[in-house]
Amino acid sequence: MYLQYIFFFKIVLFYFLFSIGIDFIKNLPIILPILLSVAFFTVLERKVLASMQRRRGPNFVGIYGLLQAIADALKLLSKETLIPSSSNFFLFILSPIFTFIISMLCWSLIPFDFNIVISDLNLGILFLFAFSSLGVYGIIVSGWSSNSKYAFLGSLRSSAQFISYEISMGLLLIPIILFSQTLNISEIVLAQIDIFNIIPLFPFFILFLITGLAETNRVPFDLPEAESELVSGYNVEYSSIGFTFFFLAEYSNIILMSSIIVILFLGGWLPLLNIFFFKYIYTSFWFSIKLLLVMFFFVWVRATLPRYRYDQLMMLGWKVILPLSLGFSFLSIFLFLLFI
Fold this sequence. Notes:
By secondary structure, the chain is mainly alpha-helical. It has helices spanning 2-19, 21-26, 28-52, 68-78, 89-107, 124-145, 149-180, 185-190, 202-215, 227-230, 240-265, 284-304, 310-339.
């Protein structure tokens, strides 16, 4: 019976890959760099952590350890696929695939440069946050379908954390939309030609960084994956391909959140210095530089801060971040109506 489950799982996976094969090949020029960036971000993160903590990082596989990501991928894919006997078989398989698809769909709305975007929607910012909020369903279903108390507690923690901080993140979008006068993501970037949003909206930028850490389950808000308490959280029962999908989705969401911060507050692909020849360079080069800076911040926080207790996490979200976001949002609306 167990071998039949494994065989059925491979058939479902093959059918899924075959059904989306055409769309994948069509969008390969954008999807492939995202997957590669996720892989090499893990190497970058481990090297930065090793440097900050004065220890050795990955340095054996490939030149300076740059091929460590490929070795990790081969190790994950070569592991045995384990499915708990008491789990909900269909939902157990579907949840990591759904989480991975949602994380890839969000990238279709990110403009890397002027007119370099898959879907340049007029309501792009709303669609982006609507897609990203769907990812929590895959986490909840994975914890419930595993029929494990550790996985279920991890999924409940994750859902409560997402809801707590997504409300504040939505409120922080209000002043950006008001000042940009648009919901189109590319036009939000172009509205920052004269001045980046980080300067007039610096308090919103700080709050958005904090909520971004919580939304991506990063330290100090990695409570859903608390190894000392819940072993590994919602994905504790997954191995091989299923765990790989969750791993790719998690790190893809980290880079996605960094891209959103760059777009909303740091001017996207616009040059950092609007002087000399810099003002004529409107390429993804500037987008990449800003993205690396924000990603370095995520790693820096992980290397320095301890983990919150869960009650501290909820108190910070509901009693500190939410009132501040609400107050700053009302203040921005008042100033907008006053000077309009």
